[in-house]
Amino acid sequence: MGYVAVTGGQKAIEHANDLTKYYRLKNADGVLNIKEIEAQFRLLIDRVMGEGGLYAPEYAALALKQAEGDPAEAAFLLRAYRSTLPRNHYSLTVEPSEMRVLRKISSSFKDIPGGQILGPTYDYTHRLLNFDLKNEETDVIKEFLADFELSSKVDGEDITTYGKVTDLLQQEGLVGNHSCEEVEPFDVTRDKLIFPASRSARLQILSRGETGAMTSFAYSSMRGYGVVHPTIGELRVGYTDVYIPYPYGEEDDSIYIGEIMVTEVETINSFAQNEQGNVEFLLGYGLTFGQNEVKAIAMAILERSLETEGTSPTQDEEFVLLHIDSVEAHGFVSHLKLPHYITFQSKLDRIREAKNTKQNNKTIEQAVTFNPF
Amino acid sequence: MKMEVAHTYNYAFLDEGSKREIRRSVLKAVAIPGYQVPFASREMPIGRGWGTGGLQITLSLIGEKDTLKVIDQGHDDSVNAVSIKRLVETCSNVRATENSEEATIIQTRHRIPEIPLRQDQILVLQVPLPEPLRRVEAKEKDTKRLHAEMDYSSIWLRLYEDIVKWGKITIGADYPSMVNGRYIFNPSPIPRYDLLKLHQANGLFLFGAGREKKIYAIPPYTDVKPLEFDDYPFEVENFDGLTCQSCGSKDVFLDEIYDAETGKKRYQCSDTGYCQTKQNERGSFV
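The joint structure predicted for all components is written out below.
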């Protein structure tokens, strides 16, 4: 009986829920431990935290476990949880120039202050399946970790801060030296986005955007449907301190609340003449939670692209900002799975009427457009 | 699930600040019938596009004394309706019902119950696309200006072009209408049949679009007029001469069902709550 099969509600849902649990566990030798997911799926955790807009590695790991590893579903779980949390403070502006750097590279300069630091990256690995991973043993892992930590400085207090590449360009007057005030940002989780969007709103949407969608859009700009094809001035990954204003103190008082790992990208684009008549480079900016390099680069490209007048899709603010959100795109595309027989009945009625009216005209030139909501 | 939600989350899921903000947007929407009030839509534990706008309104309004009915396509038992109902039940103490006359709040997708709303009832509609002018203008910036200037020529032109090409207006559900002589609005994808129930109604209709972050309202006793030309009047879906196979009702919105075995076409009330009541009244269980 067609659509009637999808009703039956309560029991069907309960059974479907049990089935997902069954499919999640059916071939399991042991249960996945949240701590291990957090530690060993580090990049996926970073991605989910970025798209979920919530810096909480443990909860991201839990969400991934619950979602059988689907990043979109995990980001969705985090967002839904996040929306129940009260908003108590806005942090002070984070200073990535004071970041404790794990990794920093520049493709614009051969050498940069402090040198190029590769840090943890897959960029130079050969993408060959490593079959040794099938049989990793705890003892061997422990031995490797102990040896490595003895011989190297990792993740400890030895990590230092470095000046930024764009500061060099700024000293030479090659990039704009715009001052900006510390103002409370437009909060996209508390206000509806309006167009044209403020810069802080734009950056927030980009920062929470879906990695794949942003990569595609940025790619389209680089390979012909756009004007932005930058050089990376600097990409850096590291820990940065977060402060909130002290609620009862003087204007400058602040409280340290912890640190977060971020990826920051500054891209250098073509140059232009500024309002004062000086010629300077145009920069693009990307910042994401965790180590999320391709997304941060894509963000810098799209950010620059949106600052540039033009007709390509990536220069259209509404087009970019409204379509890169994983939760919204995922939700609306998946709603097509819900039954639609009321609207379809309405449409059937229309096509029959239109058919009767057009009886004498045998050729229907064009299909009627219809919105299946 | 029940334990976790009850212990970890606030009453009715959203925090009190969020609920207050949504209620303020609702009040503004009621004050300006048909105007799309932007609001800071939260991510909800159901999919964006699965009724989060309606759900946020419901959760921000609902209290201990309320009785809730949730319908999807007319069905109380449709999977998404059941899922939403369960979520509200899990995070509040609200009682659910299938009888629209018992409910104080009815959240719905696609249908308005056959029995007219009373003054003390609120119907919350889930809205996929709140902007009626989206059919003719892709950009929000421009549609906002068109509404402000009451420049609705492009949507009228769209209807005219339909008539030239098809001899009929081809918009099915979600038929654009004028509210209180000021704003054109989308009634959410209710069938044209249900649209007439909004005009000078006794109850309050609230529309929530979660993904698009807008709330709007049709207050009681407000004019709602479908867009139509004098010589091409508005038409509702036609069920002349058809009756429900289960309760025998005429003059209701019917689902068209194909029998899987015989391939024969049959008709049945789309409003399952109404159909059940009628069957009980007539003592006939088919």
